[in-house]
UniProtKB/TrEMBL annotation:
Domain of life where this protein originates: Bacteria
InterPro entries cross-referenced by the UniProt entry: Formyl_transf_N, Formyl_transf_N_sf, GART_AS
Protein name: Formyl transferase
Gene3D superfamilies in UniProt: Formyl transferase, N-terminal domain
Pfam family, one: Formyl_trans_N
Transferase is among the record's keywords: yes
Record key words, sorted: Transferase
Keyword Transferase: yes
GO molecular function terms attached to this record: transferase activity
Organism: Pseudidiomarina planktonica
Domain Formyl transferase N-terminal: 130-195
PROSITE patterns on file: GART
Length: 285
């Protein structure tokens, strides 16, 4: 395992579990994982259920009530990246105990979180969602928050980035950047556009909303973290030593200006249906 100078702020969700499982699968061990326990608990804490023999791992009934994604679709989307539901279920237990800590907070604006993160200087945090980060967190001295946006910045900011990127640029695009107080306006570290997948009609008979949620819950997080992994690999390639926080913070960045980009909002249902139909039917070049 190669140690990566990232502290994962782990708010339990499908996105956070995919991030961590994929990093481990690629031999990358975060320096720290801080499991943020919220009160009341996040919905993500009941993602999976075990079969009678303890080996058959599936999405929990509670999760599927909120997210109409059948198990076979989740498994199909994860399989594109070599992941399984079991990988997601077990990801935290695969991290060395000394690397993991827990912090109970009300939400991301809880002063306890600011106080805890302030204790260690020179850190890069990987944001895995769970709310909006307070400006006080983003202003911590000698610390940076890394976010992976589903859009090719600065062209595609805002919501439904996977679909807008595909519609406007012909491919899903992703960007690793350092967060600031704006909406997807931080300094750009790395950008990547991905070729389309040939679904071979496997999604044709599913309800549009199930496909939409499946793409957002499984396909999109995998593309996000693959983008970060490619960026990390490029950093390792340029140093003969183990990567340090200073190495990560000194990577050349592309600064954004607000006027050069555009912010998009969630698509309307009818428009989204048409884009998703085109997305799953189009053949790769």
């Amino acid at each position: 395992m190669r140690k990566v100078p990232l502290t994962v702020l782990f708010v339990d969700s499908m996105l956070a579990r995919i991030y961590l499982a994929m990093l481990l699968k690629h031999g990358l061990l975060p320096e720290k994982v801080i499991v943020l326990k919220t009160d009341p608990p996040t919905f993500g804490e009941q993602l999976f259920k075990l079969g009678a023999d303890g080996n058959d791992i599936a999405l929990s009934e509670r999760w599927r009530e909120k997210h109409p994604v059948p198990d076979f679709l989740a498994k199909l989307l994860l399989a594109e990246f070599g992941l399984t539901l079991a990988d997601l279920c077990n990801c935290l237990s695969c991290v060395p105990t000394a690397t993991v800590s827990e912090l109970s907070i009300k939400n991301l604006k809880d002063p306890k979180l600011l106080s805890a993160l302030r204790k260690d200087e020179d850190q890069t945090f990987l944001f895995t969602g769970g709310g909006i980060l307070d400006d006080k967190l983003l202003s911590l001295a000698n610390s940076k928050f890394v976010h992976i946006h589903p859009g090719f910045l600065p062209d595609v900011r805002g919501a439904d980035g996977l679909l807008w990127s595909y519609l406007l640029r012909g491919k899903p695009g992703y960007t690793v950047f350092f967060m600031n107080e704006g909406i997807d306006t931080g300094d750009i570290l790395y950008r990547k556009e991905f070729d389309l997948v040939d679904w071979q009609g496997q999604l044709n008979n599913l309800p549009e909303y199930s496909i939409y949620v499946g793409l957002l819950q499984f396909y999109d997080p995998c593309l996000r973290i693959i983008t970060l992994i490619e960026f990390i690999d490029s950093c390792f390639a340029e140093t003969t030593q183990s990567m340090s926080v200073q190495t990560l913070m000194s990577v050349p960045v592309r600064q954004q200006t607000v006027p050069e980009g555009r912010t998009y909002f969630f698509m309307t249902k009818l428009f989204r249906e048409r884009v998703i139909h085109k997305f799953i039917q189009e053949k790769p070049l």
